[in-house]
């Protein structure tokens, strides 16, 4: 066996190992997601009308995300099988010195990758939409607050779908130099999530700061706890995306492993938020602030009071 063939076989062996690592990491996160999703559905079925509005919308949203993540997980297994078959065929070709027809397995592998990309992008769209809706609700349904995040979400979605569909045609992608679109789409998604987390946490911080003088310390601590939860969920969504962009800049093959993890984490992060809202450990709209304050007593209602009309403004 020549030196050139030996090097190629080592490269094939490395590709097979990377494929197995990618499947393993997605198996791990899918197992976590499966347990969390079942718990989320059980939580959404609990009767908590004062703390959980839009229960049906949340149920549809988390169910759609889980469906896309499950589809991505299944295709990841099929994709790994097709990839391994393709690489083994290449190894056999080098060992026995014959030309194998790799057209069919290569085409199948390419189609699977396109479908996985579509599921990945759709999952991100739903996840970001949940963040947008929650921010919109906490800000008292003010449309101007979420105008910029919605625009960024649309840009990210269009770029993501365009990159997946176009890059599926490798010749076109290389000719038009479109391989950079997906990282740009991920950048917009990261910026959208970061902006939404900042707006949501900032809103809660401002209300807690304004209410500190008349609210008890227990409620203020609850606000801080809720703000910490929002930041944690945001960090869970943002960290893999930032890691992917850094690896993409270095053109590292580890990006495949990170993307496999992101396919599941993109659904895990918003599902955690829905679970916390359902358990009453978070806030899903502006009415929840009043509900939480009411539990501490009427003195904690921070709405202005008009004595002449004997009512809250």
TrEMBL record:
Superkingdom of origin: Eukaryota
Entry annotated with the keyword Transmembrane helix: yes
Transmembrane segments: 56-75, 112-133, 145-165, 177-206, 226-247, 259-279
Keywords attached to this entry: Membrane, Transmembrane, Transmembrane helix
The protein's name: Uncharacterized protein
Organism for this UniProt entry: Mycena chlorophos
């Amino acid at each position: 066996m020549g030196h050139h063939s030996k090097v190629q076989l080592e490269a094939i062996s490395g590709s097979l190992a990377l494929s197995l690592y990618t499947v393993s990491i997605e198996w791990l996160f899918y197992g976590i997601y499966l347990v969390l999703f079942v718990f989320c559905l059980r939580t959404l079925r609990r009767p908590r009308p004062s703390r959980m509005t839009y229960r049906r919308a949340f149920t549809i949203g988390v169910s759609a995300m889980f469906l896309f993540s499950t589809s991505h997980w299944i295709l990841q297994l099929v994709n790994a099988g097709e990839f391994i078959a393709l690489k083994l065929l290449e190894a056999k070709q080098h060992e026995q010195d014959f030309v194998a027809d790799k057209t069919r397995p290569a085409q199948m592998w390419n189609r699977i990758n396109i479908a996985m990309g579509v599921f990945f992008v759709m999952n991100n769209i739903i996840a970001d939409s949940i963040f947008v809706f929650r921010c919109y609700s906490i800000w008292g349904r003010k449309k101007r607050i979420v105008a910029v995040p919605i625009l960024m979400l649309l840009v990210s979605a269009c770029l993501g779908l365009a990159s997946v569909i176009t890059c599926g045609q490798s010749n076109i992608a290389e000719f038009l130099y479109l391989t950079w679109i997906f990282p740009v789409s991920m950048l917009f998604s990261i910026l959208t999530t970061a902006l939404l987390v900042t707006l949501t946490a900032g809103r809660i911080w401002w209300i807690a700061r304004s209410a500190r003088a008349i609210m008890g310390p227990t409620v203020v601590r609850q606000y801080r706890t809720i703000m910490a939860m929002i930041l944690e969920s945001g960090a869970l969504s943002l960290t893999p995306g930032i890691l992917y962009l850094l690896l993409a800049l270095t053109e590292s093959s580890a990006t495949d492993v990170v993307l496999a993890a992101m396919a599941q984490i993109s659904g895990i992060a918003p599902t955690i938020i829905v679970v916390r809202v359902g358990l009453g450990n978070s806030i899903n709209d502006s009415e929840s602030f009043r509900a939480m304050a009411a539990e501490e007593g009427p003195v904690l209602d921070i709405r202005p009071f008009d004595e002449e009309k004997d009512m809250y403004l």
